Amino acid sequence: MSDPTGIDPEHDVMSETERRVAWHLTRMLMAFFTVALVMIWADLSIDLTTLTGVSRDESGPAPATTTAPPQTPADGGSETSLPQGSPTTTTLPFEARTFTMVATGDLLVHEYVADMAGFYGSDSAYDFNPMFRRVQPVLAGADLAICHLETPLSEDNSDLVYYPNFRVPFELADAIGAAGYDGCSVASNHSLDAGASGVRATLSHLDRAGVAHSGMALDQAGAGPAWFAPGSISVAHLSYTDIMNGASLPTDPPWLVASLDPVKVVTDAEVAVAEGAEFVVVSIHWGIEYQSEPTDRQAEVSAQLLASPAIDLLIGHQAHVIQPVLQFSDKYAAIGLGNFLSNQPGDERRNCRPECPDSTQDGVVAWFAVADRPDGSVAVVDAGYVPTWVDRSTYEIVPLGIDNPPGADPAVLAESEGRTASVLEPTLRRITFD
Question: Measured on CA atoms in the order 249, 253, 259, 263, is the torsion positive or negative?
């Protein structure tokens, strides 16, 4: 079979060097913003240019750019060298813990996506790794990376089906883990497409791939949050859906798929805090397909949930287009991150037009810097985004402006960037790497 992609199926998804560079770039940026914010809180007078080697112009915070990666220690550890000319020590008012987090939109495997994974694979296996190879440095560069797996996984690929009811190749779990994701939200309108057996298969394969999950469970004991400890900060991740295809909510039993009840979500978050969570992330599958404008329910529930001291950040999915990020004081509700991997807006086999706009091909990596604050709380102290676009000739997820495919039309990529910027800015600023 001839290669329709123009890339090598055996291409190494990401070298160790690239992984280290991505990691160090993000850590370097995090250090800058945390130090700057801490000193501002302490009412200290500092010269940011001297401290970081990055100038600050009149438009606001220093851009997330760097001209060269920091040096990697010989032992391959995570120590980051300071920029040239920076002081070797900095005395802070307190010792702040920090971490960076990224979250992405729907992983929605249609027929053509699976067919390409079959081409990349061998011996009847599916390989989704090449689809993540361009964006992997961005994901792996964060301390915590969260995906949204919208479709159930097949147990053994003997029963694969696609739209409108999905059971997709289980190898997707392996690619999720290899791409750098630490966990996934799994509560969605498609959660019960394959019944309880689909829930079991999905959770089993994610466990096998070392990917934590929240939003579906086989018993009440497994229905709690996923737990992480980036930067030695205890993070709990909860996942819920407001929609269920072909079934009513809540499910029976209720822990099979977690449904959106704002009062219960707050209670669940409070329980997580009582169990030691210092930062609570809530993922919600909600909204109206192909509509970027927030619904009244999205706006009202976001405000209600973020009014709770137990909830720190909301991440949303379902609309298949990017939706605005709502801000409530110092808390963010990224209510809809669009598609991260899909076949939309469609083609001759599964044409989604005119319902699916061009923006269904757009996606985003939402980026958050989290740190201790002087009052003892842990909160988002900076937020940004990397725009993405699915190259449907290869189904590679393209981080725009970071690793554009040479064969892509620059005008098409620019249009995608413009669509995403018009929705997310100025609430989020674009993250760039020189």
Answer: positive
Kind plus residue range of the DSSP H or E element containing 282 = strand 279-285
Q: What is the pLDDT of residue 3?
A: 53
Separation of alpha carbons 143 and 101, rounded Å: 6
pTM strictly above 0.90: no
Please report, to the nearest 10 degrees, the dihedral formed by the alpha carbons of residues 239, 240, 244, 248 taken in order.
Answer: 140
CB atoms within 10 A of CB 68: 10
In the prediction, which pLDDT does 392 show? 93
User: How far, in Å, are 38, 62, 93, 94, 374 from residue 90 at the CA level?
Assistant: 12, 19, 10, 11, 17
Which two structure tokens, joined as six digits, stand for 7? 């890339």
Give the DSSP letter of residue 374. T
**Residue stretches of the chain with pLDDT short of 70:** 1-93, 348-350, 434
Of 247, 250, 246, 242, the residue nearest 288 (C-alpha): 242
Q: Is the dihedral of CA 38, 40, 42, 48 positive or negative?
A: positive
Q: How many residues does the chain have?
A: 434
Burial, 97: exposed, middle or buried (Cβ in 10 Å; 0-12, 13-18, 19+)?
A: middle
Task: Say which amino acid occupies 43.
Answer: D
Cα separations in angstroms, 125 against 5, 47, 121, 173, 221 = 18, 56, 5, 13, 33
Asked whether 305 and 262 are in contact (CB, 8 A), the reply is yes
What is the reported pLDDT for 346?
79
pLDDT at 62: 33
**Spatial distance between the Cα atoms of 195 and 159, rounded to a whole number of angstroms:** 13
Q: What is the DSSP letter of 350?
A: S
pLDDT of residue 154: 97
Among candidate residues 12, 10, 21, the one with its CA nearest the CA of residue 137:
21
* CB proximity list for 146: less than 8 A, separation 6 or greater: 101, 102, 103, 104, 181, 182, 183, 184, 185, 237, 281, 283, 315
402 close to 138: Cβ distance less than 8 angstroms: yes
Helix axes 262-274, 296-306, angle to 10 degrees: 30
Return the pLDDT at 88. Answer: 36
CATH code for the structural domain at 100-430: 3.60.21.10
**How distant, in Å, are the alpha carbons of 181, 265, 273, 359 from that of 234?**
17, 18, 9, 35
CA distance 186 to 182: 13
